[in-house]
Structure prediction request, 380 residues.
Amino acid sequence: MPDSTRQLNLNLFLLAGGHHEAAWRHAGSDSDRLYDVAYYQDLARRAEAAKLDAVFFADVPALAFDVRFTARFGLEPITLLSAIAAVTERIGLIATTSTTYSEPYNLARLFGTLDHISKGRAGWNIVTTGSPDVAQNFGLSEHPAYGDRYQRAAEYLEVVSKLWDSWEDDAIVGDRESGQYANADKIHPINHAGRHFQVRGALTTPRSPQGRPVYVQAGSSEDGRAFAARFAEAIFTAHQRLSDAQDFYRDIKARAAALGRRPEHIKILPGISPFIASTEAEARKLEQEFNELIQPEYSLNQLHRLLDIDLRGHDLDAPFPIHLLSEQSPRAIASRFQVVRGIVERDRPTLRELLHRLAGGRGHWVVAGAPEQIADQIQS
Prediction:
C-alpha cells in the first residue's frame, strides 16, 4: 500500500519577468509591476493561501542578461523577502546569496535578521555563482576556479554556522530589576582562522527563532552533489526524465547517509515550469504563444552561456549540430550542460526546437496541460 502520510513540498520560484524568457512580452503579463513590492507581496499571499511551503528568489550580483530583450534582472532578494515577511505569516522565505561574492559575517547578520523579522521562516539558497560576469563587480580580475569556489563555500558554511551559534538560546536575561540584559558568558567569539576567512565574532544579533536559515542548494555537478549531501536540507534540481531524477535522488541520499546524516531530512525539489489552462489544447496554445515571442538573438546568447557554443548564424530549422558539444569545454562539468546534452542526444531537435524547449525553464521540466494533468504528472 502507498504511504498515505507522504506529502508534496511545493515552492513558488518567483523570477523577475517570468521563467519563460519572453513572458514579459505576453499580453497577460504584469511586466509593468516588476519593481513594485506590492506585486511580490500579492503573489506571496496567494501562494500562502494555496498552502505552498515557500517562495524562492534567485540572484546573480551582476547584470548578466542581455537587457535589450529580457526583464530578468530583479530586486535584491533578502530586502524583498523582508517586505514579504511583513504581510505573510506561515510561508517560507528563501533567498539566494553567493558564498563567492559575499562575506560570512554580513550574510549571517542579514539572514539572522530575516529570520527574526519572519519569526523563523528564512531559508538560504547557497550558490557559488557560475557567472563570470560577477568578478569585476567585486574587485577581481577573473572569476575564481570551479574547485576553489566550492572549497571557499565549505569554509563559508563553517563560519556562518559558528556565527549563528555564537549566542546561546538563553543568552538574553532581560532582568529589569537587576539591570542585566544579557549573560556575556553565553555569547561567544568564534575566533575562526582559516584559509579563506578570519572572523572573530560574535554575531551582533541574538539567536533567531530557527537558530539559522534552512540550507537550500541547487548544484547537481559532482562538487555540487558532494556539497549538498554534506550541508543541504533542500535541493533544487533540474531533470527532464523521471529515471534521471530517481538516480539523482538515490545518489544524494546515499552520499548523505555515508556522511552520517539522516537521508529523510533532505528534500529533493525538482523544478517544473507548467503552462496551465482549462484544457490541454488551450495550455499548448498558450505555450506556443510564449514561444513565438522569443528573440532568437537572446535565446542563442543564453545557449552560448550554457554550452559554450556560439550558434549565431546557424540555420534555426536545421538539426542541432550535436558534434559541436565538447566534453572538454569548461562548461561540461556544469549540471545544466549535461541536461541540455541529454535533450539533444535523445530527441535530436532542430536548433529552434531546442531554443523553445529551453525558453520556458532553462533546462527545468516544462509541461502543458489542464490542472488535473499537471497534478497527475507531479504525483508521478
Remarks:
- The two ends are 16 Å apart (CA to CA).
- The chain has a mean pLDDT of 91.
